[in-house]
Design brief:
With about 70 residues, the protein is α+β, with helices and mostly antiparallel strands. It has one domain: Arc Repressor Mutant, subunit A (Orthogonal Bundle). The chain has three helices and three strands; from the N terminus they run αβαββα. A three-stranded antiparallel β-sheet has the order 1-3-2. Helix 1 crosses helix 2. The chain is globular, with a radius of gyration of 11 Å.
């Protein structure tokens, strides 16, 4: 995993604020250094670390997978 992808994953985990279940909304404005064109969410989804429930112009509803929760 490259550094940018690791930082994106850590950021999503941080947004969960110690929760281990449910969906969290990640506003795209929180990714000032990243956008979906870089494929970070898609790559994390392909790796089985997140489930991108819904994607909107202003952000995404994201669920961490069990594999991702191992990082907590």
């Amino acid at each position: 995993m490259d550094e940018e992808l690791i930082e994106t994953h850590k950021f999503i985990i941080d947004r969960y604020e110690n929760r281990t279940t449910g969906i969290v909304f990640i506003p795209m404005c929180d990714f000032s250094w990243h956008n979906e064109r870089n494929g970070q969410h898609s790559r994390l989804q392909d790796m089985g670390l997140i489930i991108k429930q819904r994607y909107y112009d202003n952000g995404a509803d994201i669920t961490l997978t069990q594999k991702s929760l191992a990082f907590l």
